[in-house]
Design brief:
Elements: H1 7-18, H2 24-31, H3 35-47, E1 67-74, H4 80-92, E2 96-101, E3 108-114, H5 117-130, E4 135-140
Helix pairs in contact: 1-2, 2-3
GO molecular function: sequence-specific DNA binding
Protein name: Transcriptional regulator, AsnC family
InterPro entries: ArsR-like_HTH (IPR011991), AsnC-type_HTH_dom (IPR000485), Dimeric_a/b-barrel (IPR011008), Tscrpt_reg_AsnC-like (IPR019888), Tscrpt_reg_AsnC/Lrp_C (IPR019887), Tscrpt_reg_HTH_AsnC-type_CS (IPR019885), WH-like_DNA-bd_sf (IPR036388), WH_DNA-bd_sf (IPR036390)
């Protein structure tokens, strides 16, 4: 269910997405309002689930996590028990940054961030030890061309 937002809400959200560390005064000035109405709108959007947790974005490469793999998973087990186990395994692995269930020939795609190919192999070996998978294809990202967490508003 989508929440109804007006243009002021969208301006505030654009600013928060761009840099959530800005003060309320800075955001209010940029969006053309005062601090209290901006705070009230932010509070309301938090209560309505539009704004989730606040966090920081770290640079993976500067932390030594230089290899990004996109992992395509196919399974021939579609019962609930297998899926529950698979999802538990994925959620427990910090290397998995994203996991999506897909329509089509590939069942799942994972975004995995590790130090190098050897670390990916260790991840892969642990994954297939914990859950039976029909087919896994790993694609190494050679270059990140675009990355953003900002939604188009």
């Amino acid at each position: 269910m989508s929440v109804q937002l007006d243009e002021m809400d969208r301006k505030i959200l654009r600013e928060l997405q761009h840099d959530a560390s800005q003060s309320l005064d800075e955001i209010a000035k940029i969006v053309g309002s005062s601090k209290t109405p901006v705070w009230n709108r932010i509070r309301k959007m938090r209560e309505n689930g539009v704004i989730g947790k606040e966090t920081v974005i770290l640079d993976a490469e500067s932390l030594g996590l230089e290899a990004c793999f996109f992992v395509l998973v196919r399974t021939n087990a579609h019962e609930a028990g297998w899926q529950e186990k698979f999802l538990q395994v994925l959620k427990a692995r910090p290397e998995v940054l994203e996991a999506h269930r897909l329509a089509g020939e590939i069942d799942y795609i994972l975004k995995v961030r590790v130090t190098n190919a050897k670390a990916y192999d260790a991840f892969y070996q642990a994954l297939i030890e914990e859950v039976t998978i029909y087919n896994v294809t790993a694609l190494l990202s050679m270059e990140e061309i675009k990355y953003t967490t900002e939604l188009p508003l």
